[in-house]
């Protein structure tokens, strides 16, 4: 892959994925810093990784399962109490559609 | 000398012998905080009333034989990204400023079972993202050894609190050096255990494949004692289900015999010194102090030799791609719905997410989320994230090859001593490069300890001893032996010409 350029189109997409609304100044600064860091990361391209498997899990144990049994005491009200807005034991959110 | 200068195990012993109570030990910490906190600011939350009540309860338990462990009644501090039931856990972020967890992390349960008394939550870089504790939204922490300098990070508060004698030991977390580097900067001992040794249940996640909780203490034995308590299996962390509790009883027996018996642990130990770690950007004074430590270990009977580790130029790029990618995913949960901060006056749900996160996260966190979102995005995923995971495998294999020949790898903890406050954040790449000696340990899941080995000016220099996965006991034994041979780290000489020439 050739040199990656962080342009406005890439940045529009990244902001959507990151769910962050940036000010104009922040966005310009982020683009500059990201470019600088990605340029540095280009070093990885000099590493031959043909026939190398990505390391996803250090121990290659596969998935670990346990029985789906509720063990916590009923702390629903304590959990919901931590929400910024709640009503009748439920989270409240702004209009979704 | 006041009791605040004693080690955690010494305090535990005094409490056991009834020369001191848990309440008096906690009070000594609070008195010390009164003298130090205005300058150092190691803590985000100090709940005196709760801690004193807990100290009284534990003292009763010690009297009636409920608590018999070596750290029963000993005050400890906890990094503010580890959940404590009923006590604010902020990650040093505005977005979690008011978050009070309804549950304890696994390590907190273990500390409580052991009768340790939690006296406060320590400052850190926001969400553990940073190397100076300056990205904290709760104010900076100063290095107690020289308050014009940073304590390091991200566990800067835990290390500064121990160095300032405000607490006898602390817990930190280490994703890319966040225990070892501030331990080096503050002149304390800190250990990152093997990945999977300590449960991450209740640790607010940064990069899940790299995060590990570990101890910070005034010496190696205190770290080992804490590690015995917090290690062991936990079915709530799938990487820790098969973990075994660490047992340092052999080491405790040697301590009882004599310091010489502890030092003898080094005899015949094979220690490799990666030559790449001593070239390039390392401060010559750090280089000399760390090589002096290699000399000391050799004199103590270790077989010390230099070797080429390889892969060093790929460690930082691979680390930052993997860490930022996982951070962008982990931090997606902070959306203003379930806990923490929510923006006022948002329109629809989507608008609320975006504004909440924009207002709640600091700049370093936003930058890493953006970078992480980018490297995981369609079209770039293979070129960045998968490429980094492939490099990660090769880095792990480079260490595996080294550990076929060596029991320990000896390295600096950081290429320089603690920088001055306010000089690091302007150049993020430079700050990232300061993690050169620590990040690969996380990529390979290895245990490693950082401990002081000398000084440059008023600032400590950190030595790092790295072991093979699940050989935490060898790291601790080697570090304990070196500590005895080293003696007072505040006095140090240059390494021998022989060692310098060998490189």
What is the annotated CATH architecture of one domain in chain A?
Answer: Orthogonal Bundle
Rg of chain A to the nearest angstrom? Answer: 22 Å
Strand content of chain A: under 5%
Strand-pairing-aware structural class of chain A: mainly alpha
- Assign the structural class of chain B, choosing from mainly alpha, mainly beta, alpha/beta, alpha+beta, or little secondary structure: alpha/beta
Share of residues in helices of chain A: 25-40%
Largest interface: A-B, 53 and 73 residues
The backbone outline of chain A, from C-alpha atoms, is: flat
Number of helices of chain A: 3
**CATH topology-level fold name of one domain in chain A:** Histone, subunit A
Mean pLDDT of chain A: 90
Characterize the structure shown.
- Chain B: Belongs to the amidase family. GatA subfamily.
- Chain B: Residues 25-474 form the Amidase domain.
- Chain B: It is an enzyme of class 6 (ligase).
- Chain B: Keywords: ATP-binding, Ligase, Nucleotide-binding, Protein biosynthesis, Transferase.
- Chain B: It holds the Pfam family Amidase.
- The complex is a heterodimer of chains A (97) and B (503).
- Chain A has a domain at 1-46: Orthogonal Bundle (Histone, subunit A).
- Chain A has helices at 8-18, 24-41, 76-81; strands at residues 86-87, 90-91.
- With 97 residues, chain A is mainly alpha-helical.
- Chain A has a two-stranded antiparallel sheet with strand order 1-2.
- Chain B is of the alpha/beta class and 503 residues long.
- Chain B has a domain at 3-256: Alpha-Beta Complex (Amidase signature (AS) enzymes), CATH 3.90.1300.10.
- Helix content of chain B is 42%, strand content 13%.
- In chain B, strands 1-3-2-4-6-5-10-11-9-7-8 form an eleven-stranded mixed sheet, with helices on both faces.
- In chain B, helix 11 crosses helix 13 (363-375).
- The longest helix of chain B is centred in the last third of the chain and has 25 residues, at 381-405.
- The radius of gyration of chain B is 22 Å and the shape is globular.
- The model of chain B has no long low-confidence stretch (mean pLDDT 95).
- Chains A and B meet through helix 1, helix 2 and helix 3 of A and helix 11, helix 12, helix 13, helix 14 and helix 15 of B.
